[in-house]
Automatic annotation (TrEMBL), chain A:
InterPro entries: FAD-bd_oxidored_4_C, FAD-bd_PCMH, FAD-bd_PCMH-like_sf, FAD-bd_PCMH_sub1, FAD-bd_PCMH_sub2, FAD-linked_Oxase-like_C, FAD-oxidored/transferase_4, Haem_peroxidase
Domain of life: Eukaryota
Names of required cofactors: FAD
Name listed for the protein in its UniProt record: FAD-binding PCMH-type domain-containing protein
Family recorded in the similarity comment: Belongs to the FAD-binding oxidoreductase/transferase type 4 family.
Domain (FAD-binding PCMH-type) ranges: 133-312
UniProt key word Oxidoreductase: yes
From TrEMBL, chain B:
Family of the protein in this entry: Belongs to the ETF beta-subunit/FixA family.
UniProt protein name: Electron transfer flavoprotein subunit beta
SMART domains tied to this protein: ETF
Keywords in alphabetical order: Electron transport, Mitochondrion, Transport
Organism: Rehmannia glutinosa
Start and end residues of each Electron transfer flavoprotein alpha/beta-subunit N-terminal domain: 23-213
InterPro entries on file: ET-Flavoprotein_bsu_CS, ETF_a/b_N, ETF_b, ETF_beta_N, Rossmann-like_a/b/a_fold
Length: 569, 279
């Protein structure tokens, strides 16, 4: 073996270099391809001294002199994994580009107000909340009625203009912003509550209604929305439905999905599908609305929603607890389900890194349990109709758990203010992560007993390079794994992906519990769904959107879509 | 030294209040009730003084219906040593409360009586001052800082007044009412909630204290304040002038349609209109 290698090296001296290059990834400097240069020795002249390539500070990385800024300017050298380079999509050339006729047509149907061409507003609409994804759309439309949405889509379909439906733009997977120059259809102007039945609690409203506004409206009437998110101040109900957004404070029996009793959707060719039922029970034919819930705007644009809202229960109690280790958290959860039963309405957890981060970056918050460093914090909320009964039940459960060693310490909120400050700690974690710098966000569904193992493994893999923060809806088996660093850094990314997805896949978990696939995970669906399932999804997409104009490049992998006949570049 | 803290059970600060349809008062049934936030601050201050070793006991007191016991339990869970509940189901006004407190203070003989500066349901801001008057004790109200000097038997109180901060030095025993910036109350931890279960809440009635509850006040009606009218966004200066002239009736309009009387009356009307413009 040694002889063969030595002989090969002697006969063609570039063998070593080639072998080295095999193991090193390409280095990209400002988008220019460059390579490692091997030094010349006395015996053989190698490329390092080659004219036309300057050696970057002895690093052995060659930068062509033709590079415009080679004199004295700093470079950021990215070591990129080839895989990360290839995942960026390419613009589908079969989509048309906007021209003046299009703009005048839109102005005709929407009026001057409905057509947005200004740089600033477009800039906001092109960038997602996490500032990770940015499109380059030149046109945003703001329809005010279903009729206008229908006209827009009909026209875009006939012209083959790609579109992105957008609501509050609070999505976390890049699904709400354009990738290239897709036309943004923003439904924020469609924000009327159409009707509310005080007896049944059925609310019919337009897709652009902001969730928080709906919550306050229902509060007055004595009802609640069957979902709650940290983003409620900005997110809109149409987007919530299209993402099938999870709930921060909702439990098993009352999931959002079961609360949606009807939808009105506009298809890619402008057809308006009125499935706006307000009935609790309706078994006539296939229940098509389920197709659109969670479809992330790729099958149709939601324009109206009718929701079955549960009545508001007067007694809400909140406890903030500290546990020693993850196993106690789990045991506490099963005890809580047993002892608190139907009044248990939320069970959230956060680890010590999450707590430290929130206290560091958000003002006006204090640790409810400052006396000692605890590893895990749990929030338990109960909702019921009898204040004294619920409080007693919760207190006795907590005191017993403490005696059994399941929890180390805890506080019980004595009034609504204390309760909201506890919730603020949990709901403020995403915001704190944004303030801390760059964050790699993963939203996974895993078997509860294995959930934290992933966190510990990630910590081992990354060491001191990044801060691994974990929190989530323990009750739902939903882990929010966040890796916080100063800046986005591909070497860290390569340590995280695809390890996280593979780990999840092995546990038969979901790589996206509630955030959706969007652009970020568009090619990753195979980690959680079988090939046949994905094929059927692609067939449905082709059926409802033959030109593929609705939110392209997202949700389903481009390769699968091209196989099933949806046009690709 | 013993510290006595007054606690009132009120509608929770974060709850949206509704007026009863018969306008006799505010809706309190099925509404979340909790400890008056200023009283929480008073209790926290008492506990801090005790923890620094300058007081031996903190007694929480509440006057009101039977559910006051819940609020007192919260106080005990925060760390008060014992509680007294003076049960009275009807409406209570500050003077009656002050008389009850005088009786309690005479019985318990605390060195310091702490109260919240006002209750968030009636905003009276009277009880502390009245008790001090009845007891003939010095008072430091709207306290934002309390420093106890037990050797010299004085307490230095920084008061938040309109002009800024005023510092008073009071001889003990004294009455102090607390303001928002004094401290941040602690949460009720589970171990303390557990301990609180075994702490004593003594029940008394106003008759036991030989206080007769009578009031010189009667609430006739409670109504919501008039709804704020939405502002109007106008699109140009011309429209503004037009609206001011025709709707707000500002400007030379004042000459008609009213009949203006000569002399003093005209002067009155004119200044009235000028006020409208300035507003």
């Amino acid at each position: 073996m040694e002889d063969t290698t030595t002989n090969k090296q002697i006969s063609s001296p570039t063998t070593t270099v080639a072998a080295l290059r095999l193991f090193f990834h390409d280095y990209f400097v400002d988008g220019y391809d460059t390579s490692i240069l091997v030094s010349s020795t006395r015996f053989s002249k190698s490329e390092r001294g080659y004219p036309g390539f300057s050696n970057r500070k002895g690093s052995g990385i060659g930068i062509p002199d033709s590079l415009p800024r080679v004199q004295g300017h700093g470079y950021r050298i990215h070591c990129r994994n080839i895989a990360s380079m290839t995942s960026k999509p390419v613009r589908n050339q079969s989509f048309a580009m906007i021209n003046c006729d299009d703009i005048s047509y839109f102005k005709k149907i929407l009026g001057e107000r409905g057509v947005v061409l200004e740089e600033e507003k477009l800039d906001d609409a092109n960038t997602d909340w996490m500032r990770k994804f940015k499109g380059s759309s030149k046109l945003m439309l703001q329809p005010r009625s279903t009729q206008e949405v229908s006209q827009i889509l009909d026209y875009c379909n006939s012209r083959r203009l790609a579109v992105v439906p957008q609501g509050g733009n609070t999505g976390l997977v890049g699904g709400s912003v354009p990738v290239f120059d897709e036309v943004i259809i923003n439904v924020s102007s469609m924000n009327n509550t159409i009707s509310f039945d005080k007896d049944s609690g059925i609310l019919v409203c337009e897709a652009g209604c902001i969730l928080e506004n709906l919550i306050s409206f229902l509060d007055n009437e004595g009802y609640i929305m069957p979902l709650d998110l940290g983003a409620k101040g900005s997110c809109q109900i149409g987007g919530n439905v299209s993402t099938n957004a999870g709930a921060c404070a909702l439990f098993d029996t009352r999931t959002f999905l079961s609360g949606i009793s009807g939808l009105e959707v506009v298809l890619a060719n402008g057809t308006v599908l009125d499935m706006l039922g307000t009935l609790r029970k309706d078994n006539t034919g296939y229940d098509l609305k389920h197709l659109f819930i969670g479809s992330e705007g790729s099958l149709g644009i939601v324009t109206k929603v009718s929701i079955l809202t549960p009545p508001k229960l007067s007694s809400v109690n909140l406890a903030f607890l500290a546990c020693e280790d993850y196993t106690s958290c789990q045991k506490l959860l099963s005890e809580a389900k047993r002892k608190l039963g139907e009044i248990l309405s939320a069970f959230e957890f956060l680890d010590i890194n999450a707590m430290d981060l929130v206290l560091k970056h958000l003002d006006g918050l204090r640790n409810p349990l400052p006396s000692a460093k605890h590893n895990f914090y749990i929030l338990i909320e109960t909702t019921g109709s009898m204040e004294s009964h619920d409080k007693e039940k919760l207190e006795s459960f907590l005191l017993q758990s403490m005696e059994n060693g399941l929890l180390n310490d805890g506080v019980l909120a004595q009034d609504v203010n204390q309760a909201s400050s506890f919730w603020r700690i949990r709901e403020g974690i995403p915001e704190a992560l944004m303030k801390a710098g760059a964050v790699y966000k993963y939203d996974l569904s895993l078997p509860p007993e294995k959930m934290y193992n992933l966190v510990e493994e990630m910590r081992e893999r990354l060491g001191t390079a990044a801060n691994v923060v974990a929190y989530g809806h323990l009750g739902d088996g939903n882990l929010h794994l966040n890796i916080s660093t100063r800046q986005y850094n591909d070497s860290i990314l390569s340590k995280i992906e695809p390890f996280v997805y593979e780990w999840t896949s092995e546990q038969r978990g979901s790589i996206s519990a509630e955030h959706g696939l969007g652009l970020m995970k568009a090619n990753k669906i195979h980690y959680s769904k079988s090939a046949e399932t994905v094929q059927l999804m692609a067939a449905i997409k082709k059926l409802l959107d033959p030109n593929g104009i609705l939110n392209p490049y997202k949700v389903l992998p481009t390769s699968i879509l091209s196989q099933s006949g949806v046009d690709e570049p | 030294m013993k510290i006595m803290v007054a606690i009132k059970r009120v509608i929770d600060y974060a709850v949206k209040i509704r007026v009863k349809p018969d306008k006799s008062g505010v809706e309190t049934s099925n509404v979340k009730m909790s400890m008056n936030p200023f009283d929480e601050i008073a209790l926290e201050e008492a506990l801090r003084i005790k923890e620094s070793g300058r007081a031996s006991e903190v007694v929480a007191v509440s006057v009101g219906p039977s559910q006051c016991v819940d609020t007192l339990r919260t106080g005990l869970a925060m760390g008060a040593d014992r509680a007294i509940h003076v049960e009275f189901p009807g409406t209570l006004y500050p003077l009656s409360i002050a008389k009850i407190f005088k009786a309690l203070v005479d019985a318990e003989k605390p060195g310091l009586l702490l109260l919240g500066k006002q209750a968030i349901d009636d905003d009276c801001n009277q009880t502390g001052q009245m008790v001090a008057g009845l007891l003939k004790w010095p008072q430091g109200t709207f306290a934002s800082k309390v420093v106890l000097d037990e050797e010299n038997k004085v307490v230095t109180v920084d008061r938040e007044v309109d002009g800024g901060l005023e510092t008073l030095c009071l001889d003990l025993p004294a009455v102090i009412t607390t303001d928002l910036r004094l401290n941040q109350p602690r949460y009720a931890t589970l171990p303390n909630i557990m301990k609180a279960k075994s702490k004593v809440i003594k029940k008394l009635t106003p008759q036991d204290l030989k206080v007769e509850i009578k009031s010189d006040l009667e609430v006739i009606q409670v109504t919501e304040p008039p709804k704020r009218k939405a502002g109007v966004i106008l699109s140009s200066v011309d429209e503004l002038i037009d609206r001011l002239k025709n709707e707000a009736r500002v400007g030379p309009q004042w000459k008609r349609p009213h009949i203006i009387e000569r002399g003093a009356r005209r002067g009155y009307v004119r200044s009235n209109i000028i006020q409208t413009i300035e507003r």
